[in-house]
């Protein structure tokens, strides 16, 4: 049965959560549902004009005084639209958006947790815990088992609502061959090239990547992305005498990022934490060998059930291990080919886009909503917002 579904995300920009909710809404619409995507505010205008997209408060930054206005506007719009379900992506959309949906009497209110709970700021952690425990969230869908386990110390009533739906991506490979892709980024055709993509924020840990690349001769690193820490990373590359081997490409359109993967000999992910990395999934689809920080979220994506890894996983504090991994991809083509082939097979088998859409559709269409009492004992109820 077709449903009216609104996806909410905290802010508009071209990061992974925003790409994921746009993908989800497109695919649900293709299955016959009526969908809209609401961005609470906008850090960029990258999705403006696309079908069903609205910006609730057209501001680049939110101040505390904006929050009551935003809540009131959301509740009014939800009462007018009367969707069957609201799905929140990112903490502000979950806390504020789903609270507005609850007060508007919307029955299905799904919080999608894209990052580990302990990474939220303290105020958001407290509010998120309260919303999930008291039933403002009717269900909580985690992007990975590792994210689900990050809520292990939360109340039983919160944990009773948890499920896991992995990411899946709309993969369309580059139309370019490797030499043409390299030429488009001014990369010499015979120079080993590792690439990375993502925002220049503390989570991505680019300082480690730059320091390792600066000590790995006869190869290059290209990073697609922008953000507040980019100038510091560029300064570090200059200070280490590696500015001619480390390319800072800035923010690129998504199709250009896919071209960069085609140009590459390997992919690097040095994050301190992830929910589930879209850029890692794209590198796997391209069949690239991957070097990744050995963190639970990446291990879950890059290792099969038997523990076999489709990547070189390196502890964050093992600088020599990181340098050795870079040199292994440079010097051991058979190993690189084996890792790339294993990654390509694994992503097709385990992280199909259809599985992601099935998971959310099942959560939306479930005939019961899970409520939990204070002792954490689940029971089925017809969930509605408060009486007005």
Give a description of the structure.
The chain is α/β, with parallel strands linked by helices and 388 residues long. The protein folds into two domains: 4-168 and 353-379, Glycogen Phosphorylase B (Rossmann fold), CATH 3.40.50; 178-350, Glycogen Phosphorylase B (Rossmann fold). The chain is 42% helix and 19% strand. It has 15 helices and 15 strands. The chain has helices at residues 16-30, 66-81, 91-103, 122-134, 145-149, 156-159, 178-184, 206-214, 230-239, 254-263, 278-286, 296-302, 319-331, 333-350, 353-365; strands at residues 4-12, 34-42, 53-55, 85-89, 108-113, 139-142, 162-164, 193-197, 220-224, 246-250, 266-269, 290-293, 312-314, 369-372, 378-381. The strands form three sheets. The chain has a seven-stranded parallel sheet with strand order 3-2-1-4-5-6-7, with helices on both faces. Strands 10-9-8-11-12-13 form a six-stranded parallel sheet, sandwiched between helices. It has a two-stranded antiparallel ribbon with strand order 14-15. Helix 1 (16-30) links the parallel strand 1 (4-12) and strand 2. Helix 8 (206-214) packs parallel to helix 9 (230-239) and helix 8 (206-214) packs across helix 13 (319-331). The longest helix is centred in the C-terminal third of the chain and has 18 residues, at 333-350. The radius of gyration is 22 Å and the shape is globular. It starts with a strand and ends in a 7-residue tail after the last strand.
